[in-house]
């Protein structure tokens, strides 16, 4: 090999080394930027800071057209925690809430790894609402301990940005960090609000009812009386949310709670059990009185429509399951008795729904034609 050839080879080698060094420096920069971003997510002290770090921070850092965060929130708990913290949901249009992921995009049907591929309007528009011009997308599952929290979604106008054969490890890692940060901020918000009160309706919450149920059963056992349980569930409540919006749904829940409240005695225990379900415990009443109470509650909810701020008249109805229990003196397991009572009332509620809704059903026996007559 001549000296000239050798020099040429050395030049070429130097060029390759320089290119490799550049690539390494770039990768390092990318890694540092990713670490900084992840740190921002982990540092977020509340949900609005986290939403900013995700939707604005990641969008700017990775120069994306759109970043959305889709959260599973079937009980509207996250939304209520946000509202209780005075966060305006409309300030975060990139944060989306859903009762179920299935139906939002076909990729969510089996969603264990990040999905990367071409943006398809018909498949992905619910995940990137009001965004046009996207060519490729990445949908990253958010999971904590086998529980799906939602999906972090990146949209790009570059069709090559997210293609099916790209490695997904980096995005999967980001998904893990984001999931951790989301769960953390939600738990922190829960902790602040973890009392015995449901802050939407002002009623007691499920925790209170569970404690009270055991006390009431113990009292009924001591006194040899029965305990009646009514499970009251709004009918087709999902439609109210879907047609009039979540805030109208909240108004309906509050109004229904107030109307039911007017029929509850001081000795009764009542709680919002979750979602659109309320539970009333009435000690020492006969089955006929329980049926009458259920009928009065049913009637009070459906008698007058609720007027929404938009002027729309909303017809509300409830279905009610009624069950009662007498606890034997030697029954030691009050927890099992509590579960039995709730399960019986739930089964009766199911029958009321099956029979056409806007009615009450008793756990044993038929509802009298005129329970209060
Ligand atoms: N606005 C609002 N919606 C809620 C809240 N909690 C739960 N939901 C919604 O309430 C709906 C409850 O629906 P389901 O109980 O499944 O069914 P439904 O539409 O009431 O139908 P039936 O019970 O079969 O009559 C879901 O869409 C929940 O997302 C809340 O606090 N506020």
TrEMBL record:
- Top enzyme category: transferase
Q: Which UniProt keywords apply?
A: Coiled coil
Presence of the UniProt keyword Chloroplast in the record:
no
Please provide the Gene Ontology terms (biological process) for this protein.
cell adhesion involved in single-species biofilm formation; negative regulation of bacterial-type flagellum-dependent cell motility
InterPro entries in UniProt: Diguanylate_Cyclase, DUF484, GAF-like_dom_sf, GGDEF_dom, Nucleotide_cyclase, Rev_trsase/Diguanyl_cyclase
Cite a single Pfam family from the UniProt record: GGDEF
- Coiled-coil annotated residue ranges, if any: 3-47
Q: Which reaction does it catalyse?
A: 2 GTP = 3',3'-c-di-GMP + 2 diphosphate
Domain annotation GGDEF: ranges = 225-365
SMART domains per the UniProt record, alphabetical: GGDEF
Presence of the UniProt keyword Transferase in the record: no
**Which cellular components does GO assign to this protein?**
plasma membrane
- E.C. designation(s): 2.7.7.65
GO molecular-function annotation terms?
A: diguanylate cyclase activity
Q: Which Gene3D superfamilies match?
A: 3.30.450.40, 3.30.70.270
**Cofactor(s) the protein needs:** Mg(2+)
| Protein's name in the database | diguanylate cyclase
Q: Which organism is it from?
A: Steroidobacter agaridevorans
Q: Give the lineage.
A: Bacteria, Pseudomonadati, Pseudomonadota, Gammaproteobacteria, Steroidobacterales
């Amino acid at each position: 090999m001549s000296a000239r050839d050798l020099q040429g080879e050395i030049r070429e080698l130097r060029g390759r080394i320089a290119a490799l060094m550049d690539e390494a420096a770039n990768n390092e920069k990318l890694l540092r930027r990713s670490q900084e971003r992840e740190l921002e997510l982990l540092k977020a002290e509340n949900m609005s800071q986290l939403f900013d770090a995700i939707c604005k921070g990641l969008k700017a850092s990775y120069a994306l057209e759109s970043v959305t965060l889709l959260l599973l929130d079937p009980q509207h708990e996250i939304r209520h925690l946000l509202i209780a913290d005075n966060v305006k949901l409309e300030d975060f249009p990139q944060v989306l809430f859903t009762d179920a992921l299935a139906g939002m995009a076909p990729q969510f049907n089996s969603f264990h790894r990040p999905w990367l591929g071409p943006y398809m309007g018909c498949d992905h528009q619910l995940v990137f609402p009001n965004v046009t011009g996207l060519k490729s997308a990445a949908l990253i599952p958010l999971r904590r301990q086998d529980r799906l929290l939602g999906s972090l979604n990146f949209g790009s106008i570059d069709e090559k940005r997210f293609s099916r054969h790209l490695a997904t490890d980096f995005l999967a890692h980001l998904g893990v960090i984001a999931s951790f940060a989301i769960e953390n901020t939600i738990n922190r918000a829960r902790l602040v609000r973890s009392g015995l009160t449901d802050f939407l309706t002002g009623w007691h919450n499920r925790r209170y009812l569970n404690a009270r149920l055991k006390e009431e059963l113990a009292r009924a056992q001591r006194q040899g009386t029965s305990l009646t349980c009514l499970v009251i569930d709004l009918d087709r409540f999902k439609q109210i949310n879907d047609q009039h919006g979540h805030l109208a749904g909240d108004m309906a829940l509050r109004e229904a709670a107030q109307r039911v409240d007017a029929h509850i005695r001081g000795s009764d225990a009542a709680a919002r059990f979750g979602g659109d379900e309320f539970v009333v415990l009435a000690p020492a009443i006969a089955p006929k009185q329980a049926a009458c109470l259920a009928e009065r509650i049913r009637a009070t909810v459906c008698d007058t429509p609720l007027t929404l701020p938009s002027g729309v008249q909303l017809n509300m109805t409830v279905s009610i399951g009624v069950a009662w229990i007498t606890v034997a003196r030697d029954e030691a397991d009050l927890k099992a008795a509590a579960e039995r009572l709730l399960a019986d009332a739930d089964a009766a509620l199911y029958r009321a729904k099956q029979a056409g809704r806007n009615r009450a059903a008793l756990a044993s026996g038929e509802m009298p034609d005129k329970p209060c007559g």
